[in-house]
Amino acid sequence: MSEMLSLEFMRTALLAALCVGLVAPMVGIFLVQRRLSLVGDGIGHVALAGVAVGVATQNSPVWSALVAAVLASVLIELVRARGRTSGDLALALMFYGGIAAGVVIINRADGAQTGTLTGFLFGSITTTSREELALFAALSVVIAGVVLLLRQRFFAVAGDEEYARASGLPVLALNIVLGVLTAVTVVVAMRVIGLLLISALMVIPNAAAQQLSGSFRAAGRWAVGFGVLASVGGVMASYQLDTAAGGTVVLLAIAVFVAAALAGSLRRALARRRHRHAERHLHEHGPDCGHAAVPHGDHVDYLHDGHRHAAHEGHYDEHADEAHVQPEPEEANR
Amino acid sequence: MLVRSTEVVRLHQAAFGYQGRPVVTDVDLSVRRGEVVAVLGPNGSGKTTLVKGLLGLSEHLSGEVSVLGTPLARLRDRTRVGYVPQRHTLTGGVRATVLEVVLTGLLSSRPWWRPLGRDALTPALAALDTVGLADRARFDVETLSGGQQRRVLIARALVARPEVLVMDEPTAGVDRTSQQVLAGVLRRLGEAGTTMVVVTHELSALRGVVDRIVEVDSGHLTYDGTPEGYAVHQAELARAAGRGPAAPDGRHTRTGETGGAR
């Protein structure tokens, strides 16, 4: 461990991994919510064309990748907003065109050496320069700041776009901002896990978090924790095991997902064993149902023929006193 | 003008549609404050397009449309018109609590740089109380029944205290018990003086709540009047078609898909 941290390139690599682990799930949760989990892949494909232009013109590939990715993300939102069925094909053309142009330009500029190309496609975290790290850190701060400020609006738009529009939220503008954040995240993650695997770190920690929480706010926190665990842990493991960092990060994220899924089903099974359902219950308790309401911890029980009934996940539990699994202990004040 | 201020919705020769193509045309309609109007019509008749026109969700193609005394395009504060869409998923591909869904109804009343804080909880819980779901605030919405999820959407529409509530099939696709609970919620809202425009198939579920019926067929208004008059109108139509008297509650036989463009 101390040996690893004594190496300059490893310190840089771990800090870059920390940035990615933090921001990728923060942005990714809205992609999962919109059921557009794979859109990060598409932006990654287009970013490769930007990288290629940087390599060919001997400029920093990060900046040109950023420009290409941002343009792609804005275009995606404009195509989506038009809502035509041909939009899907338009996006496919753009994504494949991006990666194909990237491959052609890089090989042409690089004398057909595949090293540079694989570095961008699958990540080459240990070649991250200090200047790049500073840029990634600054971009990560911006991404995190914007998400924290606008997450409630992103949640509303991603959850129910039509309602958001009817209620007066600027839907297209919010979607474009989210698209740009996705593009910037792709570029920040490019060095660490590579353009082909980027979506994994936006999506998998969120998939894992969904196994453990029924609240959006809590799931977001879990996802960031899992993202940091997978990216920092994966980079460390890849150093110890001498494996490719990007792939290791993603495999670790999948392992975290499997563990979370197991923990989630275990918790649900325990919750089922520890509480008793009320008999088949057609009546619905409420403020004016006529049954006396009794405060019980963080909820209300209703007295029904000598039983205490508490609402729980679509049915009523018998509440004698102690044994009840709280539905969701998190604060709901997002 | 006093007359104007009591008029919540005023349509004159209005047409609405999608991508430039009209779906409903020549609509003359005026809804006064406190009225509960049911919009009926077969699938694909254009009734959803009509009410979506009041929300700016379908295109306003011609005629005059004013909502709350302002031409629709110039109505800045959209929270004054509440909307309960017909939906089957509430949160997209992730899970969220009832409270988190209801709070989204408050967002557009705040500037973008000010996220909702603790102070937003009070109106959100009050709205949930109105629909009888205050004790479910911290539940995952996916664990609620279909009828309860509809009530969550009503609470989301109520949280910003709208002056008029537009609802699309609030009672469709839920079991009879939930329908009765929903009807009770709408009745309480109606008694509290909330103006409502409700697209529905199940007029029987809303008996006693609805003051007025508007029927849309093939893109035109075909009836506008009292519920009692509507039963007569239906019977006349049925006689003209030689089919015998229609169901007096005006219920339509096809209750499957929602019809119309979403």
From TrEMBL, chain A:
InterPro entries: ABC_BtuC-like (IPR037294), ABC_TroCD (IPR001626). SUPFAM superfamilies: ABC transporter involved in vitamin B12 uptake, BtuC. GO terms for biological process: response to zinc ion; transmembrane transport. Gene3D superfamilies: ABC transporter involved in vitamin B12 uptake, BtuC (1.10.3470.10). The keyword Transferase does not apply. Keywords: Membrane, Transmembrane, Transmembrane helix, Transport. The keyword Magnesium does not apply. Pfam families: ABC-3. It is found in: Cell membrane; Membrane. Residues 313-334 are annotated as: Disordered. It is a multi-pass membrane protein. The chain crosses the membrane at residues 12-31, 62-79, 91-109, 133-151, 163-182, 188-208, 220-239, 245-266. GO terms for cellular component: ATP-binding cassette (ABC) transporter complex. Belongs to the ABC-3 integral membrane protein family. This is ABC transporter.
